[in-house]
Amino acid sequence: MIWNPELECMDRAARKRLQFARLKNLVEHVYNAVPFYRQKFDAAGVKPSDITCIADIAKLPFTTKSDLRETYPYGLLAVPQSEIVEVHMSSGTTGTPVVDAYTDSDLNDWAEAMARSLAGAGACKNDTIQNAYGYGLFTGGMGVHHGTRKLGATIVPISSGNTEKQLAMLRDFKSSVFTCTPSYALYMAERAKELGIDLKALPVRAGIFGAEPWSEGMRIKIEEEWGIKAYDIYGLTEITGPGVACECEAQNGMHVNEDLFYPEIINPETGEPLPDGEKGELVFTTLTKQGTPLIRYRTRDITFIMDEECGCGRTTRRIHRLFGRTDDMMIIRGVNVFPSQVENALVGIKGVEPNYLITLNRNPNTHLDEAELQVEVSAEAFSDETKNLEALRANIDAVMKSKLGIHLKIKLVEPKTIERFTGKSKRVIDNRKL
Ligand code: ADP
Ligand code: ZN
Prior knowledge:
Elements: H1 5-8, H2 12-33, H3 35-44, H4 65-70, E1 84-89, E2 99-103, H5 104-120, E3 128-131, H6 139-151, E4 154-156, H7 163-172, E5 177-180, H8 182-194, E6 206-210, H9 216-226, E7 229-236, E8 241-247, E9 254-256, E10 261-266, E11 280-286, E12 297-303, E13 305-306, E14 318-319, E15 330-332, E16 335-337, H10 339-347, E17 352-362, E18 369-377, H11 379-382, H12 386-404, E19 409-413, E20 428-430
Parallel strand pairs: 3-4, 3-5, 5-6, 6-7, 17-20, 18-19
Antiparallel strand pairs: 1-2, 7-8, 8-9, 9-14, 10-11, 11-12, 13-14, 15-16, 17-18
Bound molecules: adenosine-5'-diphosphate and zinc ion.
């Protein structure tokens, strides 16, 4: 279902005009209302009047995570604080938290973006949406919550954790749509098995999963274990939270809510804009946000823009499933490695679970990086003979070497020994002092 055909299926030229009109307003407003932006624009020698078409956005300076940290908590407010009705903070995967402050109109836009996302995954008024994203300062819980209200569906605001209760609520409320991080969806499948609960017999038909990187292989696994369609959703606190982009029934790239959030891809080293189809760092400008508008915010997320029209009828451009972030990219002996590549390789190997932990150390004598990959063996493989386990280890070693181009020390661990997460998972421990 398409929630807002007028804006989601808009003629592309008309959308560009709308984006330009909004950008122009935004740039003028922040130049006058936020000293931080005025100083930045002045330092870059750019004035609001220099913006004469949407492509002129490239003249504007970037905003970065450190700008947000330095102005914590309210330095970027573009309205009087009395207009702010809700605040959120990022979960701080990468350090000091950053703040998003919403006016009533901002909350409405967020709910709109989320309602579109839920509808894109097939949800409607008749559905019951069980929301296992964490409630609180994290945007996941409240984002789905606001969007569900707008959609008019029933929300079960259970928040994250308490897996047995989750399973009981799925059954009792006949939840048809389930939302959480992909790693938690897999963990729930594992718990359900232990408890003798058949997930496929539950009324859930779709899951909307995001907030952390996952792979196509993980999608297949979740879809099989749950007997549902698993949709990818993207967002970040700085821009609004979840709902910046979400998949439609085609499950092939996430439609960006472009009338609200203007996407660009840049070369992360030079800052140069890249054409659609080329992989680089995703940058967003919030076109309608009032509380804490962001101009050309560098997300550090890596993807490319898919320009081709989608069969679903939406004309918004899509972003490809994320490849990781510039800062979760590990550089191991000079080779760039993303945890998502490791995960992708693991899901193709029989006898292991996609639960893993990468530990990086630097050998004090050789000064070389040493990377250890702990992989959980499946229960069946674990009961096998030792020589089979050794063959499994050697196989993983060979697969990793060919897919990543470097050698990882593979350590097999017993089933269910790697920590499980109800929210975002942590897959890398970097002990190197660089
Ligand atoms: P942080 O994790 O930086 O504290 P957030 O909680 O706002 O901040 O998380 C936003 C980040 O989560 C994104 O920038 C992106 O790296 C990651 N993320 C969100 N959704 C997805 C997704 N569907 N696929 C991959 N990564 C995602
Ligand atoms: Zn589509």
